Amino acid sequence: MDPGHTKMNWLRALPFLLAVIALPGRAQTAAASTATLDPAGDVKEQYELSQAVGEVGTSSIDLIRVLERHLKKYPESKQRAAVEKALLKAATETDDNSRIVLYGEKVLQRESPPDQGDVLQILDRVITALVDKKDSLQSKRAIGYAKRYEDDVAVMRAKMEPPGHLTPGLWSEELDKAMARALALEARATGYAGDPGAAEKIAEKSWEAYPTGEGARETAFWLSSLGRNKEAIELYAEAFTVEDKGTIEADRARDRARLGELYAALNGSEKGLGDVILGAYDRTAALLSLRRANLKAKDPNSQATNIVDFTLPAVDKAAQPLVLSSLKGKTVVMDFWATWCAPCRAQQPLIEKVEMHYEDAPDVVFVAVDADDDLSLVAPFLKEQGWKNQGYFEAGLARQFAIANIPTVMVIDPNGRISSRMIGFIPDRFEQMLTERVEEARQAAK
After folding, report:
1. Region(s) of the chain under CATH 3.40.30.10
2. Cis amide linkage into residue 414, ω under 30° from 0
3. Domain 307-445's class?
4. Which pTM does this prediction carry?
5. What confidence tens digit (pLDDT) does each residue in 237-296 have?
């Protein structure tokens, strides 16, 4: 029985390729061919590629055939890097492991920084494709990529700021999970390369990096292969009980079956297995509870799911953070803005007018929430603009509540519920519309 693995989700290749065709020079890299095509040749190649892709429709298999034929005809194509990446995506969609390895390795030779492109996803898929062969030589190749995976995660931890409005705590959690995944893949590759003892130790490190069903399952598998079935039972029980969104029901069913097989073989029946499972549940629950407590101590928003759970750091470092639970019982107008947003600048005077309208209403509070990626830009911008309300950083709030467009104004009623969202704004009606929505929200307190 194999430990099993989780495959990454991929975007479809066709939209990416069409974007490259529309912008001919965009996807070239240092690994692109040194040979050049004359302008007329470029136009001819682009036309043929566009025509061929247009005839494919949504078939990944047909896309592979078309793109490989194109590269055979144009071996010095300036679009080779982009076409090979599209081939990798199409191969991933069709679970074509041979092509995943072929084109994945080509892409990885060009894309080294982990913060550019889909490097970790590509590494993940190439490693699993190699390991799936259960061949010693292929698995040894996979070990090298798994170590690169781990190195890239370490680089991201050291050098990258949290992306996509993740809080520092949640970003750290994601990196822990990525490291656990990389170590689990290294363990699998190491075992199939012929060293199950080392595989078991690496799998333990995966569990230590972040407790997942995969890490426990991988450890259990190699323990069992070493004849250490009593220990393997404990680990399969942990794989079965650990709270892990990456473990699907089919994984749990396999864990349960293997757990029963090993326990019955060792004890003659499954009598007493329930106590083993309950013990494993208690251990994993306590471990995850401790992680959550430690994370919350470092990042108060890490477990926040409701607006009132969030604490927003002030843009003015001398000011106190805003604990949103302190505003419960009030109507809160929350303006999400960013320095790069021209409509936000146009909207700001209108918000200030509405705020002045409620200046004598203690039950209405206005909160400016910055949603910039680069927080260092915010204080200088506010000083330059002379905005009255310095406001707060969003600290994960925008991501939690799917603020996908800027500007967005959310009105929160006195019970802490979102009463309305205003996405974008209509200049000639904005003040009236916002005032009406504030009044509607205020009614919730009556």
Report:
1. 307-445
2. no
3. alpha beta
4. 0.75
5. 999 999 998 899 999 999 999 999 999 999 999 999 999 999 999 999 999 999 988 988
